[in-house]
Specification:
Largest sheet: 5 strands, parallel
Radius of gyration: 23 Å
Number of strands: 9
Order of helices and strands: EHHEEEHEHEHEHEEHH
Distance between the termini: 41 Å
Helix content: 25-40%
Bound molecules: 6-chloroguanine
Shape: elongated
Structural class: alpha/beta
Length: 257
């Protein structure tokens, strides 16, 4: 899967996404991260990419031209790669029409990102993220290129880079092969709308605290039952708002809620 991240701070992206699990997935060829510097596309002789908002107000806006030209360049790269990969003869589009890539603008003025969205976006062959800075981006270029507006939560950040990296990480780990253990992509927190159960490793006793005995019992069914109960109780305690949507049996609702 290809991630194209349009930003004024490409080093920030390259640094973060070259580390740990995502970095390993890039090295193994499951993911490719393209950090695209919007400033490289400005036609301004002083390399300017921002200007004052019409009508006045605080701060500067990113101008339409460099953003649009950077995006067009990414679209051309995607198209070239598709032509290379598909023999022109049996390509459905005959090498002509190409649908525009999914293009996500990171903004607090949008629906909040969820695990469900991460799963859905992981089915795409390529994703384009536009990171705004300053007070935002000229509305006209957003209208032209953006397919999805996404926020990562109800608070304000200084730019879209951290949200883009949050989304890229969450999407990437749903791409087959990225996680070493395929199971961990699905049985974790938020699957079935419940939080994950507590976990323990060696030693059996630490700081006067013992590992719950059921986990040492070797009884698989009992362990699963205990984990399920812990998930429900933890969700009730920490995120009661999730319980309405959670997949619980009638018996579980009766027993725990
Ligand atoms: Cl997606 N962008 C910015 N700039 N701030 C945010 C956000 C996004 N989500 C929450 N705060």
């Amino acid at each position: 899967m290809h991630f194209y991240i349009l930003t004024l701070f490409p080093e920030m992206i390259e640094q973060a996404l070259s580390t740990s699990i995502i970095g390993r997935a890039v090295q193994k060829g499951y993911l490719k991260i393209h950090a695209v510097n919007i400033r490289d596309y400005t036609t301004d002789k002083h390399k300017k990419v921002d200007d004052y908002p019409y009508g006045g107000g605080a701060g500067m806006l990113m101008q339409a031209q460099p953003v649009y030209d950077a995006w067009r360049s990414v679209c051309a790269q995607i198209k070239d790669r598709k032509i290379q990969n598909s023999s022109m003869a049996n390509s459905r589009e005959g090498g002509l029409g190409w649908s525009r890539p999914r293009t996500i603008y990171l903004t607090p003025q949008a629906p909040v990102f969820t695990q469900g969205m991460a799963k859905e976006l992981a089915l795409e062959e390529e994703l384009v993220f536009l990171c705004g800075h300053y007070e935002g981006v000229d509305e006209r270029v957003l209208e032209e290129i953006v397919t999805d507006y996404v926020s990562i939560g109800d608070y304000v950040l200084t730019g879209g880079e951290l949200p883009a990296m949050v989304m890229a990480d969450a999407v990437a780990r749903m791409v087959p092969g990225v996680l070493a253990n395929e199971q961990s992509g699905s049985t974790e927190s938020l699957e079935g709308g419940l939080l994950e159960y507590p976990q323990y490793s060696r030693p059996e006793e630490w700081n006067g605290k013992k590992v719950p005995p059921v986990l040492l019992s070797g009884n698989h069914a009992k362990v699963e039952q205990w984990r399920r109960e812990q998930s429900i109780l933890r969700t009730k305690e920490r995120r009661p708002d999730l319980l309405a949507q959670a997949e619980l049996t009638d018996k579980e609702r009766e027993t725990y809620l």
